[in-house]
Write a structure and sequence with these properties.
Distance between the termini: 10 Å
Number of domains: 1
Strand content: 15-25%
Largest sheet: 8 strands, parallel, barrel
Shape: globular
Oligomer: single chain
Number of helices: 11
Radius of gyration: 17 Å
CATH superfamily: Aldolase class I
CATH architecture: Alpha-Beta Barrel
CATH topology: TIM Barrel
Structural class: alpha/beta
Order of helices and strands: EHHEHEHEHEHEHHEHEHH
Helix content: 40-55%
């Protein structure tokens, strides 16, 4: 059954805007859990622009659903992950000047170093995921470095969906969906888990949730944005309903 991992980074973004103690990401994780989230995702960035080290440790201690730590493949982040031991660590590219993650990790260009990072995380009992573009060469490289999960980047699909006036049957949107479908099939053929995420929202999520064998979607900004008006628990509940409805139709 398809699962939802809720990214709560932007709850911390709001807190850090005033450098205060609220809203608390741990409280957000509880609300997301009560709304039906299957996991919580946070990205501990090098510049600590939102999630802080103490957030990750509190979430590890208090969250009762799985914790996914998004992280750059640096020695500092590997050390923190091995200390905290989230259920999953997702390796992502990271730039100081980007607003959000702008593309997939280029596994192909740095296989040797990433193989070592994956090995260190796996030795700590952590399932390792890589966030990659929908390219077969990147999927194959992910398998070679020992990743157990590939999260396929849905940003190009989401941008095409918006540019096409939210027409899920436009040629541009269908082309992006086909790229995701093909990448997902390659992920499964190589015995890795197929996850997907980035820029998914309440309007574009269902075609992705219908993809064969997609295991988990990671969604944050759209859920937190809707929560401003409806509350986080209800926002998560509605996203989960849309996902499961679509997955049932696609089965």
């Amino acid at each position: 059954m398809i699962e939802l991992g809720v990214n709560i980074d932007h709850v911390a973004t709001l807190r850090q805007a005033r450098l205060t103690y609220e809203p608390d990401p741990v409280w957000a994780a509880v609300e997301a859990h009560l709304g039906g989230a299957d996991g919580i995702t946070v990205h501990l960035r090098e510049d600590r622009r939102h999630i802080q080290d103490h957030d990750v440790r509190k979430l590890r201690d208090l969250t009762q659903i799985k914790l996914n730590l998004e992280m750059a493949a640096t020695d500092e982040m590997v050390r923190i992950a091995c200390e905290v031991r989230p259920e999953m660590a997702m390796l992502v590219p990271e730039g100081r000047h980007e607003v959000t993650t702008e593309g997939g990790l280029d596994v192909l260009a740095q296989e040797a170093r990433l193989r070592d990072v994956v090995s260190r995380l796996a030795d700590a009992g952590i399932v390792v995921s890589v966030f990659i573009d929908a390219e077969i060469a990147q999927v194959e490289a992910a398998a070679r470095i020992g990743a157990r999960v590939c999260e396929i980047h849905t940003g190009p699909y989401a941008h095409a969906f918006h540019a096409a006036g939210r027409d899920a049957e436009s040629a541009a949107v269908l082309a992006e969906i086909e790229k995701l479908r093909t990448a997902g099939e390659a992920v499964r053929a190589l015995n890795m888990r197929f996850n997907a995420g980035h820029a998914l929202n309440f309007y574009n999520v269902q075609p992705i949730a219908r993809l064969p064998a997609v295991r988990e979607l990671h969604i944050g900004h759209a859920i937190v944005s809707r929560a401003v008006f409806s509350g986080l628990r209800e926002s998560v509940r509605e996203m989960k309903r849309l996902m499961r409805e679509a997955a049932a139709r696609g089965a």
